[in-house]
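Structure in, sequence out. Go:
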């Protein structure tokens, strides 16, 4: 029996200036499912990702977002985070003066409403940093400052592992990664999925190579703010061979 985790119903979104971006998106993600959202540049993929996590840059003009049965359409980002939602950014921001360790301590405590010792957090971090092929020295570096693209993406997956979300959005996590870094990041995501089998995942990507590793349960094609087709992995293969012309 299906167990809905996230339910997006007839969602219309505009930018702050009123420009229409999403035009009636409906999507249901059940517990334990991994969905992939694909589409050309400018179709609204990252807008949907940001809106799901409560970005004030975008305005929901119609429709609802329900999470674990609760209408969260009006909740802000921090409230959604506490409920167990997570977004791995396409372009992670730098935070000079804030170490990775201290940032994670603050976010884990905000997520769980419980204090965690630096020692216990560092032990947990070291375990996951080893899985993600990250130098242990990264724990004491300023968040994303001077990090390469691959290091930033590994750090996003590290955050995801420690925050233990129930639903995660991966917004073009594979962008800018070489083959080796992509494999490490994908392995990290799969390790988290293994430890949290009920977690729902929405991965947004242009390319088949990440999906070869993640093997999504469902694939959706987004064109001009609308999901024009949904199916299985065969859609990824169709896109790889025919491009988006098949849906235009």
């Amino acid at each position: 029996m299906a167990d809905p985790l996230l339910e997006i119903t007839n969602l219309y979104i505009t930018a702050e200036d009123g420009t229409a971006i999403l035009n009636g998106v409906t999507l249901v993600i059940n517990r334990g499912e991994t969905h992939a959202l694909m589409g050309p540049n400018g179709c609204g993929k990252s807008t949907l990702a940001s809106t799901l996590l409560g970005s004030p840059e975008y305005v929901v003009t119609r429709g609802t977002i329900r999470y674990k049965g609760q209408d969260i359409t009006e909740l802000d980002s921090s409230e959604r985070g506490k409920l167990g939602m997570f977004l791995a950014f396409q372009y992670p921001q730098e935070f000079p003066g804030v170490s990775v360790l201290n940032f994670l301590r603050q976010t884990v405590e905000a997520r769980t409403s419980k204090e965690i010792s630096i020692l216990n957090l560092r032990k947990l971090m070291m375990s996951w940093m080893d899985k993600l092929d990250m130098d242990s020295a990264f724990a004491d570096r300023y968040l994303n400052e001077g990090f390469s693209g691959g290091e930033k993406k590994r750090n996003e997956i590290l955050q995801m592992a420690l925050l233990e979300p129930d639903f995660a959005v991966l917004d073009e996590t594979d962008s800018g990664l070489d083959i080796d870094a992509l494999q490490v990041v994908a392995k990290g995501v799969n390790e988290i999925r293994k430890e949290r089998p009920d977690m729902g995942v929405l991965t947004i990507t242009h390319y088949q190579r990440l999906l070869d590793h993640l093997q999504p349960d469902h694939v959706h094609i987004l064109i001009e703010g609308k999901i024009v087709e949904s199916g299985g992995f065969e859609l990824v293969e169709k896109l790889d061979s025919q491009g988006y012309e098949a849906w235009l």
